[in-house]
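Thread: quick sanity check before group meeting

JM: Hey all, I'm pulling together slides for Thursday and realized we never actually wrote out the predicted structure for the chain we discussed last week. Dropping the sequence here so it's in one place. If anyone has concerns about the input, flag it before I start.
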Amino acid sequence: MEKKVIITHLEKENVEERINLLLDFHVQKNLNHTSMLVSKDELRNMSLERIKSGQNILRFYVVKSPNKQVIGYCWISSIDWIEQSCELSISIFPEFRVGYGLLALLEMYEYLYQHLNMKTIVNQSLEGNSLLLAKNSSIKENAIRSDFDSYTFGRYRSSYLWTQTIDEYKKIGKLRSEKLAKLKSKLKSKMKV
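JM (edit): ok, ran it. Output follows.
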């Protein structure tokens, strides 16, 4: 299957664009205020230091469309190499969220499970992410609500946290494959008639 998004490690040449994004009003309202409390130079130095020596605790990635246009960023934090778990965060530019957000999530799951050997991924969605929480109401029903979790855009916001294990990931993949096989079989039998 052809990849719908391309995810690469954040490199030095991506830092300025990411800093500009962090300083953008529309993005800032969904993140913490770090980028508003420190200078652009400090943000640059923090990013470069993280690339150079902080990969064991926090990793940043660039999300690109199939034509290699930057459409967002994702990062993993709270990395526990012994327990093989981490927290996954994704920030897709508003104009690309519909369609690309879920694709970035699925690509990151595959990367984390298959290449970093993670066993459990912790996901978080801030309240107000109506697209994710409305379309996938099972998340809201099965997630832990953490009131006053993040201070963003001058107010405290609640978040929803849920985990997905590698076994759940494999089970979902198997169910999708079975559904696809049934659908193909059904279509094939209708074509014969």
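AS: nice. The chain has one domain: 6-192. Residues 6-192 form a domain with the Aminopeptidase fold (CATH 3.40.630.30).
JM: adding both to the slides.
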